Amino acid sequence: MLKVVPFFLLTCLSFVGKSQINMVVKEDGFLFLEGKDSLLFYQKSPKDMDGKYSRCNYIHPLYGADNSRLTEDFPADHLHHRGVFWAWHQILIDNKSVSDGWELKNFRQKNTDIEFRLQKGIGHLTATVDWISPLWKYGSEPYLQEQTTITMYPKTGSYRRIDFEIKLKALTDHLRIGGSDDEKGYSGFSIRLKLPEDVSFSGENGLVKPTNAAITAGNTMKIDGSFLKGGKKGGVVILSNPQNPDPSDSWIIRSKASMQNAAYPGRQPVAIPFDKPLVLKYSLLVFHGEMSEKKIKKAVK
């Protein structure tokens, strides 16, 4: 097992090897590879566009099987979208809005600790992140502490699995989070993909079509099409762990110029008790070629 803490040690260390997940330290984050294949980049340091839409604690790029970039950051149509991210529009304390983590308003994240472990070739990155707002104690103290673990597995056949465990701990009483206050209810785990013209979506019961509001489609959503170089087929499967609180099977999907969202909790905010963190688990299967329902079930069991 390899373990690296705290921050300052990470600036001068990297991990290399074969048949395992390796981490290379960059100035603003960490690049993960398997052999010569890039998996993903974790954005540790704040990143903005002309001083606006500052964000950190997300994945971009997420790479496909042929090292093509699958995700987008700062897309022109939604500058707040960012690769693979998890965010909430409504963040409330005592029923008053303190932040919008989705659109990055009155919202700052600060990485306070990073740990990387390598165990049996599997890479585990754990980031501890404070959520801060100028509307809460003038930004002098965080109101929530996030601890997210990203687990990256070596490639299996035509796909690679990446797990996310997001643990949200309230640092004050009467804290609630929720999605956009409309029929869409954008909220939670999301991915902004570069969408091909032939993109299609499949839930647990087959093909589904995007609608304006969220749809119920089971705990997996396959997004496939000509994602890879030269128009080759591939895509991503998102798994919302059945152990997640309800709704764990609600999806907002878009075929053009937007993100794909495992929507939780939706429009109505949910409380995060001071003494009980909210834990959410998701997985990504990044694949090339075809990914049958049988293969998906085998990959996530």
Describe the structure.
This protein has a single domain, classed as Beta-galactosidase, Chain A, domain 5, CATH 2.70.98. Helix content is 4%, strand content 47%. The two termini are 25 Å apart. By secondary structure, it is mainly β. The chain is globular. Mean pLDDT is 93; it is low at 5-18. Strands 1-11-12-13-14-25-21-20-17-18 form a ten-stranded antiparallel beta sheet. A five-stranded antiparallel beta sheet has the order 8-16-23-22-19, with no helix packed on it. It has a four-stranded antiparallel beta sheet with strand order 2-3-4-7, with no helix packed on it.
Quick synopsis:
The protein is 4% helix and 47% strand.
What tags apply to this protein structure?
single chain; 301 residues; mainly beta; Beta-galactosidase, Chain A, domain 5; 2 helices; 25 strands
